[in-house]
Fold this protein.
Amino acid sequence: MVGRHKQPAIRDRILEACVDHALAHGLPDRLEPFAVAAGTSTRMLIYHFGTRDVLLRETLGRARQRQRDFFGDLLAVRPGEPYPATLRRAWQAMTGPAGRPYLTVFGKLREDAEQQLWPGFRRESTTDWLQPLEDGMRSLGRPELGTLVLAVVRGLLMDLESTGDAARADQAFDDFLGMLGG
């Protein structure tokens, strides 16, 4: 008897459904919510991914790639647009309905002291935004301020996540952009 051959297209469809579920509801404690979201069984999840932790890691990895694509596009320099205006628009999108699911999922991951699912996530989640911000600040002749912009964004995102006070965080970000000349 010949066993079934794994089908990458099915695995990919399942993974996309798991990412959608994680962004909408967070990472589940059990596999059943992922199975329901993917229209499959927990047995098939294990068949395609091996273990729960592998599925969770791959779900986070795919969600992170989506976030990098989305946020990276938001932070890219646009011809004819002053970079502080780009940052203002990026902040609004990142903290708005389209960006919040990423902030929620990865905020919880960053708080995980043991970082079992993604060792080194805290460092990576900081450094991966540095280059686009340095490129943007280079358009103002100040690439070295990329680290400062990153620190302000991360700090205000943590503040927003902790307090839910969007008006105060938005005002603080606008004040910061004013200091940059925007």
User: Anything to note?
Assistant: The mean pLDDT is 90. Residues 24 and 101 are 6 Å apart (CA to CA).
